[in-house]
UniProtKB/TrEMBL annotation:
Coiled-coil ranges from the UniProt annotation: none
Biological process according to GO: peptidoglycan catabolic process
Any GO MF annotation of the entry: peptidoglycan lytic transglycosylase activity
Signal peptide (UniProt feature, chain positions): 1-19
Pfam families: SLT_2 (PF13406)
SUPFAM superfamilies: Lysozyme-like (SSF53955), PGBD-like (SSF47090)
Keyword set includes Cell membrane: no
Domain called Transglycosylase SLT: residue spans: 31-347
InterPro entries: Lysozyme-like_dom_sf (IPR023346), MltB-like (IPR043426), PGBD-like_sf (IPR036365), PGBDSf (IPR036366), SLT_2 (IPR031304)
Keywords, alphabetical: Signal
Protein's recorded name: Lytic murein transglycosylase
């Protein structure tokens, strides 16, 4: 899911406001100069990389301007929680996830037993990342990683990898080179997103080096060709990097007592109070309540009394949660709060759960991918020939939506939901 990756880079962009602008593509000379610069610091990589090996393999790398263009889109187009969650956890994706589990029960149960991570979470990550497909994206990972590292170079005076975020791009490029050097990936398979994520659960090269698991036992960590390896590597990431707490939920939907709501009345921004973490029973004692099987208000109670803290994706009004450390664990897999909720809500639905009880603060809720496709086909029929009915409200679809609103003499809007889709598709 490319849009997920966009969120990561938004943060990266914000950190690097002083770096070069993204208005122009990198020239061939700039890219080559960057490759030479990188070759001077291969020693600073987390793992060994000889300068000659780097230069030999990097000689095959090409600057890919789709990386820069995607970074620009990421910075430019705001999206809503209710749109993203409606599309990423729609009925089709839930049914597909249930089918994946039914067809792979043995291997998924063994992965769950070994790593303690529920199979629904692993499969939900697979569903969000690549829609349960073998691969996502079409950009060679080496090109994407090198382009990212050159578009946002690590400052020369910072030897420590990972700080600032742009230095992680550099380490990612080095890791991509090492995977090729060590024949750990087949060059033809080494294709992924503009953010250099590849394989069935979209690993970036530096992460794969650290957490990859050969679960099917053929001696190779293959997250492209092997479901078992991809799923086990994902579970291993959640367990060893994030410290997944077996048996604990990711979130519990709650209602906040009226006399304590003032602290959460927001302007639509997310509110996440990690410093307020305490046992669930302490929140219950404060009068916070949960939802029962039919949406009724019930006391908060869970086995093990997990430590939890408040998370309100859009402030109040809107759904409110107490989240466990497993929320942070998924956040280490992908640093976007929305990603965590997409994965965990999809897992919840795959396991037979339902949408949140509390409505989002909108009169125009989000669409399933099937509905978006139907609407996109309508846009095509209205003459927007460059709209592709792919179920994603991307830039061309948004441009066409804006044109349709303008045609009706309505205030400009660049997305549609349940209400506005029906309104536009009915005769004026
Ligand atoms: Ca394997």
């Amino acid at each position: 899911m490319q849009h997920i990756r966009l969120l990561l880079l938004v943060g990266l962009l914000a950190l690097q406001a002083d770096a070069q602008t993204l208005d122009q593509p990198l020239g061939a000379e700039q890219f080559q100069a960057c490759v030479q610069d990188l070759s001077q610091v291969t020693d600073s990589a987390l793992r060994p990389l000889k300068r000659d090996d780097f230069l030999r393999i990097a000689a095959d790398a090409h600057y890919d301007d789709r990386v820069r263009q995607s970074m620009q889109v990421a910075a430019g187009e705001p999206t809503y929680w209710w749109d993203e969650l409606a599309a990423t956890t729609d009925a089709q994706r839930v049914a597909d996830g249930q089918r994946v589990i039914a067809q792979n029960a043995d291997v998924l149960n063994r992965i769950e037993a070994r790593f303690g991570v529920p199979k629904e979470i692993v499969v939900a990550i697979y569903g969000i990342e690549t829609n349960y497909g073998p691969a996502g994206g079409r950009i060679p990972v080496l090109d994407a990683a090198m382009s990212l590292a050159c578009l946002r170079p690590c400052p020369p005076d910072t030897g420590q990898p990972g700080k600032p975020a742009t230095c992680r791009s550099r380490e990612r490029a080095f890791a991509a080179v090492r995977l090729l050097r060590d024949n750990k990936v087949r060059r033809d398979d080494f294709v992924g997103s503009w953010a250099a994520a590849f394989g069935r659960t979209q690993f970036v090269p530096d992460t794969l080096e650290q957490v990859g698991v050969d679960f099917d036992g053929d001696g190779v960590v293959d997250v492209v060709g092997s479901d078992a390896d991809a799923w086990a590597s994902t579970a291993n990431h959640l367990k060893t990097r994030g410290g997944w707490i077996a048996g604990a939920p990711v979130w519990i939907e709650v209602s906040i007592p009226p006399d304590q709501q003032a602290a959460f009345a927001g302007k639509g921004d997310s509110i996440r109070q990690q410093d307020q973490i305490k046992p669930l029973s302490a929140w219950a004692a404060q009068g916070w309540r949960g939802f029962g099987p039919n949406g009724e208000s019930v006391p908060l109670q869970r086995a093990g009394d997990p430590e939890v803290y408040p998370f309100l994706p859009v402030g109040l009004p809107g759904p409110a949660f107490l989240v466990t450390r497993n929320f942070n664990t998924i956040l280490r897999y992908n640093g976007a709060e929305r990603y965590v909720m997409e994965v965990s809500l999809l897992a919840h639905k795959i396991a037979g759960g339902r949408d949140f009880w509390t409505p989002w603060p909108t009169d125009d809720p989000g669409l399933s991918r099937a509905q978006v496709k139907q609407f996109q086909q309508w846009l095509v029929d209205q003459g927007h020939a460059d709209v592709v009915p792919d179920g994603v409200q991307g830039r061309k679809t948004r441009d066409a939506i804006a044109a349709e609103f303008e045609k009706r003499g309505l205030p400009p809007q660049r997305r549609v939901g349940q209400r506005t889709m029906a309104m536009l598709m009915s005769p004026p």
